[in-house]
Amino acid sequence: MTDETERPARRNPLQDVAALAQGLRTTLAEVMRPVVTTQYPEEKSPRAERYRGRHYLRRYDNGLERCIGCELCAAACPVGCILVIAAENTEDHRVSPGERYAKVYEINMLRCIFCGYCEEACPVQAIVLGPEYELSDVSRERFIYTKDMLLEPNPAQQEPIVVR
Amino acid sequence: MPEPNGAVPTVTLTIDGHQVTVPRGTLIVEAAKRVRIEIPVFCYHHKMDPVGACRMCLVEISPGPPRPQTACTTPVAEGMVVRTNSPMAVSARADILEYELANHPLDCPVCDKGGECPLQDYTFRHGYPTSRINAPRRHFLKPIPLSERIALDRERCVLCYRCTRYYDEITWDQELTADHRGADSYITSQFGQPLRSIFSGNIIDLCPVGALTSRVWRFEARPWDMAYTGSVCSRCAVGCNVTLWERRNQLVRVTSRQNDEIDEGWICDRGRFEYTEVNRPDRIRVPQVEGREATWDEAMEALLDGIQGAGHRLGISIRRDVTNEELFCLWRLLQGPCRGARVALEGRTSLPAPGEDTLLIRDLDCARAIVVVASDTADDVPIVNLRIKKAVSKLGARLLIVHPDRLDLDRWPEAEHIRNRPGEAAAAVRELAGHPLLQEGPVAILWGDGRGSEDTRELAAAVAELATRVGGRSMPLYRATNERGALAAGLISGVPDDLEGCEAVICYGPPAPGRIPASARFVAVWDLLLRPEHGSPDVVLPALGFAETQGSYTNLEGRVQFLHPVLHPEPPLREGWEVLCELGQRLKVREMDFVGIFQLQRAAARAIPQFAALASPPEPEPQPTPVLYGPARP
Fold first, then answer.
1. Where are the beta strands (DSSP E) in A12-75?
2. Span B304-332, mean pLDDT?
3. What is the CB neighbour count within 10 angstroms for residue B174?
4. What is the strand order of the sheet B250-256 is part of?
């Protein structure tokens, strides 16, 4: 407990003014320097060209899916977040070139660690990690990304995704 | 091939510095396996004659010519020095692999063999790291359906001729052949006809590349997705050993598992392809009472009400792949409250219980003469049929057939076929005693019931008489998977089943024989699926398939083999023995409150002498040591 009768010695008021000036100098110097804050979410910071964000399944220019359902992405995945169930293309129902396509393609985004091994393992460059990183959602079920969500829009119908 | 009696002179040789002593006549590939040295092979298969077609197994042998030689066609010799990793041998194998890959499409990502493919593995272990081939590859239309169940991809084929040799040597069906010559040759079916053999599925396992694949489980799973167990086939009484493969709690495929006592690594197409029932989406999963879903408790009460007081008017139809454990529970019920009930086993013969000293399947290898009576073995017991073919064509046994019709075995040119009139096989067998083909023993007699046309009691007497007179042993060819177990438990006997006249029927599996009797006023069905022949039952209970149930089968030679389920049934599905035990407890049978199947098996082993083997289920098999040795890349 401090003794109330003991008061600190009175200092020179010029010392206070000097301290104030020093603080202001830091403040004023920072005003002059370039701004680093981004106004997220209104403004978004640029991402590296090879940024690994949300996955996409790509298509060929004629609209056929690239994915052949080989499950090599699932085999390469270190956390086991990819499920692929393959099926056979028929003449009436052609999804991808060749014999095989992915009937089911699901990624559990809660598990994914965005390592990019799936992208590396893919023999047809079907799965890519895109620039998008805003993946929050309100329920666990909605983090299971199905094939419909992952497939990029058909280029015959829409503009392709542009990576910034 | 070494003689079975064991007195074979041995030979000592050196393979990569390891001394190994093997019987004379052993091939170098087999000798190398003893010291765990891998010599890669495509065309060589240990159950077929070597041809040396693929040249993959090249090694350096001294003394010998100064060039690589095939290890799969060269027998060992005393003092031989084999080098598998000399620069010459290593580069020879790598060059051969480069040729094998010259036309290979390298579509491994979409190939069902990818992940368990010898060509893939050998390319990694023995091939050059990169390809130098830039030329256009051979192209074919693909996939070509060879039958409803098998697809052929000619681009992937390395022309090892395993499939065509299998069809020639093992099954004698000769349905596959190589068309054209040299680099232009390709595999095709004879005259473009679809494969009809019941043994066609084995070529999928035999194919060392992805050229022959199954259409039944096409693209269902990659090998690394699947869990597997070694189990027993449920389709017939032979009891072939199989491997069951599971993905996402679905039975994805069935492959063979070599057991030289029984199947020698072959299974028939029934066992390989007819497994899909267990995966059906319309499978019964919840008990039903009068068409409405119910709890097990309600269903059991309804069942008990239905069979109340039926006495000898109760009929119990059992499926062919009933386990020994379920048979024991039924035996307890029939000893107690259900005394007098009639029992029918689906798909069975009317053969009586076997005598004391019956033939074993492996004894066919030592037989000098084989007599097949009143059975189309290719249809009744397919894998025994292959054993007969092996004994006849490779081990020099003589073949005598007593059957009214032309059979699969008649393809053997020296087979003697005695055509009896249907129903008179016994008389024909009695005349065989002095037959010239049976002068030299041991004689193996395989006999069936002629699909119901023969009087089995008379035939049994005739066969036993013949066996004593020619000094042979006999084996009755049962058809239903656990028919021998049901005979051991005394549930059925050598007379055909008949449930006609029963008022209450419990039908476990498809109804036997053929349909639910018209006299039935109460029908309880306990099966995987509701089938048309079940009609409209009062109570429906869900049953388990052979890939998900615990238990054991007794095969036609009396061998008890245990099932190892690969699927995990979810409640309310229950094990068959649990349901029967609960039924017994509700009927106030003593000693039916088993805490687990092991306790039940021990009780069954004490109660029924033929089930003694149930008390000692085998230890789980140790994981096989992989056959992989050092880098061999050039």
1. 55-57
2. 91
3. 13
4. B227-232, B241-247, B250-256
**Domains along chain A with CATH numbers:** 55-150 (3.30.70.3270)
Could B110 and A88 be called an inter-chain contact, meaning their C-beta atoms sit closer than 8 Å? Answer: no
- pLDDT for B608: 92
| Residue B357 clears pLDDT 90, i.e. is over it | no
CB contact under 8 A, A69 and B219: yes
Q: What are the residues of chain A with a beta carbon less than 8 Å away from any beta carbon of chain B?
A: 68-72, 75, 86-88, 98-100, 123-124
Going by C-alpha positions, the residue among B304, B305, B254, B303 that lies closest to residue B277 is: B254
Give the model's pLDDT for residue B5: 59
pLDDT band for position B618 (50/70/90)?
A: confident
**Contact between chains at B109 and A87 (C-beta distance less than 8 A):** no
CATH code of B10-100, in short, is 3.10.20.740
Pick the CATH number of B108-126+136-278 from 3.30.70.20, 1.10.10.10, 1.10.1040.20, 3.30.360.10: 3.30.70.20
All residues of chain A having their beta carbon less than 8 Å from the beta carbon of residue B220 are 86
Q: How far is A31 from chain B (nearest CA, A)?
A: 58
From chain B, pick out residues whose CB is under 8 angstroms from the CB of A99.
110, 142-143, 219
Reported as a pLDDT band with limits 50, 70 and 90, residue B630 is very low
Q: Is the dihedral of CA B435, B440, B445, B450 positive or negative?
A: negative
How far does B142 lie from chain A, in Å, by closest CA? 9
Q: Is B9 on the interface with A (CB under 8 A)?
A: no
Looking at domain B288-345+484-615, its CATH class is alpha beta
Residue B280 CA: distances (Å) to CA of B265, B276, B302: 28, 7, 27
**pLDDT cut 90: percent of chain B above it:** 77
CATH 3.40.228.10 fits B361-477, yes or no: yes
Position B545 scores a pLDDT of 93
Confidence check: pLDDT of B624 > 50: yes
Mean predicted confidence (pLDDT) in A93-117: 94
Sign of CA dihedral A32, A36, A37, A40: positive
